[in-house]
Amino acid sequence: MSKPSNPRVASAASTEPEGRGYPPKWLRILIPSFLILAWLAGAAIGGPYFGRVSEVSANDQSSYLPSSSEAARVQELQGEFSDSEGIPAIVVFVADDELGADRSESIQGAVAGLADLDGVIGVSPLIPSEDGLALQLIVLIDADGEIAETVNAVSDELAGETPTGVESFVTGPAGFTADLVAAFAGIDGILLAVALVAVFIILIVVYRSILLPIAVLATSMFALTVSLLAVWWLAKAEILLLSGQTQGILFILVIGAATDYSLLYVARYREELRKERVKWVATHRALKASVEPILASGGTVIVGLMCLLLSDLKSNSTLGPVASIGIVFAMLSALTLLPSILFLFGRVAFWPRLPKYEPEVVAAEGGMPSKGPWVWLGTKIRRRPRAIWLATTALLVVGAAGMAQFEAEGVPQSELVIGASEARDGQHALAAHFPGGSGSPVLVTAPEAELQEIADALRANEGIDGVSVVSAGSPSGEAPVTEGGIAAVGPPGTEPPVPTVVDGLVLLRATLVAEPDSAAAQQTVRDLRTEFADADGVLVGGATATAIDTNDASIRDRNTIVPIALAVILVILMLLLRSVLAPVLLVATTALSFVAALGVSSLIFSGIFQFPGVDPAVPLYSFVFLVALGIDYNIFLATRVREETKLHGTREGIVRGLSVTGGVITSAGLVLAATFAALAVIPILFLVQIAFIVAFGVLIDTFIVRALLVPALMYEIGPRVWWPSRLQHREETLA
Questions:
Q1: Which end of the chain has less neighbouring CB within 10 Å, N or C?
Q2: CA quadruple 480, 545, 73, 76: dihedral positive or negative?
Q3: Residue 505: which of 74, 86, 85 has the closest Cα?
Q4: Is 408 within 8 Å of 615 (Cβ atoms)?
Q5: What is the C-alpha to C-alpha distance for residues 431 and 214, in angstroms, rounded to an integer?
Q6: Distance (Å, whole) CA 595 – CA 401
Q7: Which residues of 681-717 are buried (b: 16+ CB within 10 A; e: fewer)?
């Protein structure tokens, strides 16, 4: 092959000769052009779907319950007792002094127009509090409509009509649903903007180039757009269940993973451009070197995510396939779109730091940089491997000690949204003047013949304030149940209404004394379930029961999925590295970094941020992301170390692998930490906690585990780390 006049500098426009098995020039241009156009078409079609996710997503906690749970079975039966599919919004009016007749009449006038609002399907009469300082009513909102918009319309209607000296709040299940919808409203805009800006800044610093960061970001965004298109239609067909939190995680995961895979390919492509003048050959070699680690890394993440299918909660089980679809497109874009863009641009993509064509220099270096921080670190590991791995292990163990204070037992519904919340304020106002569970009753099914017996048992519980039965013949849809039976509703002499019976069952509504999302309310529901455990046809559901069943399912999922995911990932690594000991070390060190991240996060959550609690799903999600993605970096390192070991022996291969991959893996870690940290801009406690744990854990894994602990530990063990493969017998070269 002919060389340019100056072999150290290659022109981006150099002529690529035919022969040597090259495809024709027209085909070398056609293939990448076709791939770019295909991705452009997918992005053009999928782009508008960013604004349409709400059409196919659901944020109602009850929609994610296991179908076998008691709360889910009660919810299913509840629909048969009523013709209306509604979700209640509780409106509370509160004054500092007693509400007189004048203000009560003004409030009555203020609520008169609520029934005419779009999405409102029913309004109850006003109910005064015993202290005379508050009034409440229940506004039934169409569950199939735009709940948040209807709640906002109710709030706006009351804001202009409420008399002076009286505050109004919209709370209850519909109010909290509106809070969640408002909190997730920034996913399409703020979250993406923050994540992309953070990644772009990091890429500018890493590459000191303009075109290359744009190419990498385009790769990530195209992968996200096409994956969102696929997920949207699967959700539309009700094959997948999509929520705001799943959408946010999908965005972050695809951007982070696609950027990481792109960084790996760019590093390989730059290496090949230094050794090869012909772009096509450099692209082919870079792809060949990148395919295995990218597919292995992406496959590991997918396997970890798909373990979520074992979850009883639909919010967990559906995240697995949704996020896996995103990872598939992230890999495809990094292995097709980015190589096509870089091939067409050639060395110009790296401007102004164009990679030089300098095969003699590369040969002299022996494939290893002659200087730099990672070369220096490799030297330190050569000299004192034991001291380094012992020190880093001790540091991680100290961090893990914080796990003793980590409690993930659930978060009250009123605390799910960070910042101001009318629904939260309204719930507190409601609890101050009415029984705390007003508007969010415990729902109990009972055989018709045992109605009185079950109602008496409910009233006997100290956590229950009152009991009623659903009755289509009552103006309000329910009638009180007293010791003497069903009470009449209406003027004296009115006959008691007949309870609604479905398949021999009646539906009782028991008002809680405590706020429905409090620990006291949950204990009341648990006590009732214990009391009625042996009663045929008696099921206990409602909002509080839904929270209980969700938390219990999350804890079961965590205890089941974590060990299974670890075992599956371990098997994949054994197949990839053709070894047993090395994969065990990689998984063990990654798991240790996860526990350390969780321990430190626990101290920060309770001591600095003073969060009200942690959702049981937070450790599970954090584990899946940290372990699966943390293993990514160990795969990047271990596959390169194995490659170098074949040429130079284990210990020299470790130093060389660290020196060559250090920069790219550290950059990838910074990108992933920044993208997950961007989740914190969504004011949902669940996402903020995951954002911190995963971002902090990725930094631990990047700068401590992968940079120090793993190389030092492997160096200390030496060739035996590849046991039982033949690589353990590879003769060592002198360092």
A1: N
A2: positive
A3: 74
A4: yes
A5: 54
A6: 9
A7: bbbbbbbbbbbbbbbbbbbbbbebbbbbbbbbbbbbb
87 CB burial (10 A radius; 0-12, 13-18, 19+): buried
Strand, helix or coil for residue 246: helix
Query: Side chain identity at 98, as an amino acid letter?
Result: E
**Tell me, which fold does domain 1-55+209-367 have in CATH?**
Multidrug efflux transporter AcrB transmembrane fold (1.20.1640)
Quote the CA–CA distance of 506 and 78 in Å, as a whole number: 10
Structural tokens at position 715: 């160096």
CB proximity list for 100: less than 8 A, separation 6 or greater: none
> Residue 417, SS3?
strand
**Residue 90, SS3 per DSSP:** strand
DSSP element (H, E) containing 286: helix 279-306
CA dist list (Å): 447 to 238, 274, 456: 34, 80, 14
Q: Which fold has domain 435-548?
A: Alpha-Beta Plaits (3.30.70)
Residues of the chain with CATH 3.30.70.1440: 70-182
Q: pLDDT tens digit string along 229-274?
A: 999 999 888 888 787 778 888 888 899 889 989 988 998 898 889 8
To which H or E segment does residue 383 belong? helix 373-383
Give the global pTM. 0.82
Give the integer Cα–Cα distance in Å for 247 and 249. 6
Place of tokens 């009351």: 158
Note the residue count of the chain.
Answer: 735
Determine the Cα–Cα distance for residues 614 and 689; give it in Å rounded to an integer: 8
Residue 120 has phi, psi (to 5 degrees) of -90, 125
Longest CA–CA span in the chain (Å) reads 110
Q: How do residues 185-218 score in pLDDT, each as one tens digit?
A: 766 678 888 888 988 998 898 888 889 999 999 9
User: Of the candidates 125, 129, 127, which has an alpha carbon nearest to the alpha carbon of residue 98?
Assistant: 129
Bond into 724 cis (ω within 30):
yes
Cβ contact 264:660 at 8 Å:
no
Q: List, for residues 549-568, the tens digit of each pLDDT value.
A: 988 888 888 889 988 988 88
CATH 2.60.40 fits domain 374-405+578-735: no
Beta bridge partners of 417: 684
Domain with CATH 1.20.1640.10 in the chain: 1-55+209-367
Under CATH, to which class is 70-182 assigned? alpha beta
What is the rounded distance in angstroms from the CA atom of residue 467 to the CA atom of residue 459? 7
Residue 304, both tokens: 């970890």
Spatial distance between the Cα atoms of 289 and 329, rounded to a whole number of angstroms: 19
Cis peptide before 17 (omega within 30 of 0): no
Give the neighbor-by-neighbor strand order of the sheet with 505-512. 485-486, 478-482, 464-470, 505-512, 442-447, 539-542
